[in-house]
Structure prediction request, 445 residues.
Amino acid sequence: MSFSSLGLSEPLLRAISGCGYTTPTPVQTAAIPAVLRGADVWASAQTGSGKTAAFVLPIIERLAVAGPRGRGRFVRALILVPTRELASQIAGEIHDYGVHLSQDAGLKTLVVVGGVSINPQMMALGGGADIVVATPGRLLDLIDHNAVSLSSVATLVLDEADRLFALGFSDEVARIIALLPAHRQTLLFSATFPAAVRTLAENLLRNPVRIAIASTPEGKPDILQRAIEVDVVQRTQLLRNLIVLHEWTRVLVFVATKYATAHVAEKLRRLGIEAAAFHGELSQGARTQALADFKASRVRVLVATDVASRGIDIEQLPVVVNYDLPRSPADYTHRIGRTGRAGESGVAVSFISAETDAHFRLIEKRNRIQIEREQIAGFEPLETIVPAPAPTGGIKGKRKSKKDKLREAAGLAPTATVKPFTPAPAFESGELFPFSRRPPQPRRS
Ligand code: AMP
Prediction:
């Protein structure tokens, strides 16, 4: 299969070849002809599968063929995304693929995201735009300021659609969709589709072409998944040792809170590893700088919250580490999808403690994976898992820790036990849920 057989015109084919792509990926082969003929598309494709080009290329082609846009504050194609970085990334790809379009067909593309001043965006939207790549909140602000009209949108893309429909975003997305013409093309792209999203998607799409690439073996990225048992207090030191031992050049480390991003980055720096923090409440300038430093190898480790888990494309990222486990099985998929992109291989390491073991088992069950537990010499965990108590006669199935055995032998009372980590009920249905506070850790003696 070649790009030229998919129905794209010469300026786009030249740009594709300039990007170094020789053959379309499976999602591109399936989606490009469907989008070109105006069909709705529902694509469940792994990140790294080339899904951005799968919708961007045919959108550019259709807009270029249709000729210049009319006057007024109208938008012809709207791409909604959950994060600012993803918006910039997509706009970058639109620019790269459109470089050889003739002057007349030159497409005006605008990025509309929060965290930066709204005025330049209002000004830029003055004459309308061919393509707007937006995060929902800022787009609504601009609509409320009458800076833009969505009444002429011919194509809507929801990228990372499950996140767009999840907590916090769904109302905003619904408000935006209500402002679009009923007669339009809608394209939904995401790596995962939880049940609630499937229902919404079914209501939004008209006879969609269904594309499911992730389930075919050749569409799966090459990611080695590892699960290492380690006590909570030993994780930073273990991380440092793994980085040095394996000579990992670039590592994306996920933690649960924005506080932890700064804390873990600081601890790594003290251990001699260049590290930066990345989370949603940094200023946009600081976010852009941290990502640029990481991509340019000025820092070796980026310690991030889940804001970095969606759609961000970092070339040659060999390793992702779940320092704290993700909240949901879908988040696990998104996080590890940052590595093993575009045909490269990658490693995804998850740190498992006594407290989070049960939670990781649920992630494995939901994602239909089973990862062998490892222990690393010198970092063997001392804390052990305590399953639910039996009705009578002590604690059924309790495995005593080395420390407790020693204390028992010395005639002392056992140390505090570690409570099993119990995910909130919503987790059972596969939905996102707020991370409950972790129980206090027993102190090491
Ligand atoms: P995405 O899944 O859209 O985030 O794309 C992941 C990476 O694959 C990006 O760096 C793209 O530039 C790259 N890519 C997209 N299409 C192709 C292709 N046909 N051949 C090689 N690389 C590609």
Remarks:
- The first strand starts at residue 41 and ends at 44.
